[in-house]
């Protein structure tokens, strides 16, 4: 696993060929396109903000 975006969405990179994939909403692997990278980055930011807010509230 290269990067954990959220609890359910992760990005992976092949150590042999360098191909990057991500999990989609169904849990299937999809090729990591620039559009999906942007979506994952946005999801990661939202996920981190919510978890930081939850930690401060607790």
TrEMBL record:
Source species: Zobellia galactanivorans (strain DSM 12802 / CCUG 47099 / CIP 106680 / NCIMB 13871 / Dsij)
Name of the protein in question: Uncharacterized protein
């Amino acid at each position: 696993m290269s990067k954990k975006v959220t609890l359910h969405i992760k990005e992976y990179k092949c150590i042999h060929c360098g191909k990057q994939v991500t999990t989609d909403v169904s849990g299937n692997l999809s090729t990591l396109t620039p559009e999906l990278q942007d979506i994952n980055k946005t999801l990661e930011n939202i996920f981190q903000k919510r978890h930081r807010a939850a930690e401060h509230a607790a």
